[in-house]
Write the structure tokens for this entry.
Amino acid sequence: MTYCLGVLIQDGLVLASDSRTNAGIDQIAMVRKQVSFVLPGERTITVLSAGNLATTQAVVTSLKQSWSEGDETDLTRAPTMFDVATILCSVYRRILDRDGDYVRPFGDVTGSFIIGGQIKGEEPRLFQVYPAGNFIEAGPRTQFLQIGETKYGKPILDRALNFETSIGMTAKLALLSFDATIHSNLSVGPPNDLLPYRRDSYSVENLRKYSATNAEWSRIRDAYSEGLIDLLSRVPDPAIDPP
Amino acid sequence: MTYCLGVLIQDGLVLASDSRTNAGIDQIAMVRKQVSFVLPGERTITVLSAGNLATTQAVVTSLKQSWSEGDETDLTRAPTMFDVATILCSVYRRILDRDGDYVRPFGDVTGSFIIGGQIKGEEPRLFQVYPAGNFIEAGPRTQFLQIGETKYGKPILDRALNFETSIGMTAKLALLSFDATIHSNLSVGPPNDLLPYRRDSYSVENLRKYSATNAEWSRIRDAYSEGLIDLLSRVPDPAIDPP
């Protein structure tokens, strides 16, 4: 399984993904699920992917091969992020059409994607591509999108995130959302790739990799975990026995 | 959907369930998902159920009708909680056999159950019945069991619960686990039934119903929610921009 998260905030985007891939709990490998396409100063496009790894790798690698080649799936030529999402979906469906009948006897052939980025002249934008190859866009009221193992990490985002949340706090919430997921589900695991993208930077130099032993992540995780136990001891217990 | 939770602790059991049932988001009703069978001073058996409502009601109502009737599914005659679980499963499978072929064209016919209770001469015990009608028992290392919409409410239990946790703290964690679930998923909703069962009490007089506006639950929810926001502001942010 996989967990990928994209958050749209006033200050930009935060994109995060884990690195675990497995076909059954006994066959576990690490793989990057986050790829960025950059024209410095002009556009950055980051794609997170979940689902059938052969399918999602084929999509991402095709887009890499077409980068700057001038064909119709060349992402350097897409005028808007909406066009980027449309191109990714067309490449994805082409691969589904090619591979589907061969793969389905063995399992699910589909993938899903989160696409975040900014093209000069536009605001930062964030999209989620469904397994069917259609997609939705995030907005200030639907400001985070998740794919893969999404549920364990959702409550903390529902409680604490809004469009005005700072990029540092959002990055912290993303790490804690991953921590909750990793805690509760074996099939999601570090290292986590985290990209806090500042609007109008057109750069991915803020990309961080958090291994399980990363000191900064440990500090955040421990401070949260200890603070939570302390908080729970201070919240009043319900009255148990009848008066 | 539904969320039901059973926790086994040193001091006894905590059993909790929501009240929402729906067939599609537009057809929502409230229903109790928690039923207790009591022989005062001798045994209490509580059944929580999720899944097809006609199936689970048929199981629970059959067991109610057989109570004290002296037939082979009479729970007053079961020598142990293990036998109680075995009887419930046999009733459940009888109903699956009777209804399955008629119901499957319309949807899932199966249910799942949590059974918690104590029979004099035994410790408090807790079981989970799978849709197949087989079951597992909780123990000090697997001390909580969930059915239905289980994921949103799991992280807080994973972080804070252990076998020595007090019954008051466990009841509080159960309420907060439900709060996380209700927050993140429309298909789970109050009122919640919460039964903190003290070992050797053979009574369900501690059963509480928490409506959405219940003052005690609001106090717990608000204290947690405010405390969490405060905690998150104190946990250090990750460094974002490159040095």
